[in-house]
Design goal:
This protein is mostly beta strands and 88 residues long. The chain contains one helix and five strands, in the order ββββαβ. It has one domain: EutN/Ccml (OB fold (Dihydrolipoamide Acetyltransferase, E2P), Beta Barrel). Helix content is 9%, strand content 34%. A five-stranded antiparallel β-sheet has the order 3-2-1-4-5. The two termini are 18 Å apart.
């Protein structure tokens, strides 16, 4: 798991069937100071995160595949929570 900032959404006319009904967000990993590092990733979003919100991203592909109910899904990242800006 790591912190990330939501940088955009993915729009696709053709996608894997397991992604049907899921929002796909571009998430930029950040450190505890909010500085970006590494490459952005695409994560499924069950929590309706907004643009530029800080989120917790799980890299547990097995849990993400359980969420989409497809053991053969290519999903790897899933947003597991939104960080409350008042708590930081």
């Amino acid at each position: 798991m790591y912190l990330a900032r939501v940088e955009g959404t993915i729009t696709s006319t053709v996608k894997h069937p397991s992604f049907g009904g899921w929002r796909l967000l571009i998430c930029q990993p950040i450190d505890s100071a909010g500085t970006a590092f590494g490459c952005p990733v695409v994560a499924i979003d069950p929590h309706s995160a907004g643009m530029h919100e800080i989120v917790i991203v799980s890299t547990d592909g097995k849990a993400a595949r359980r969420a989409v109910r497809d053991n053969r899904s290519p999903v790897r990242h899933m947003i597991t929570g939104i960080v409350d800006p008042k708590a930081t």
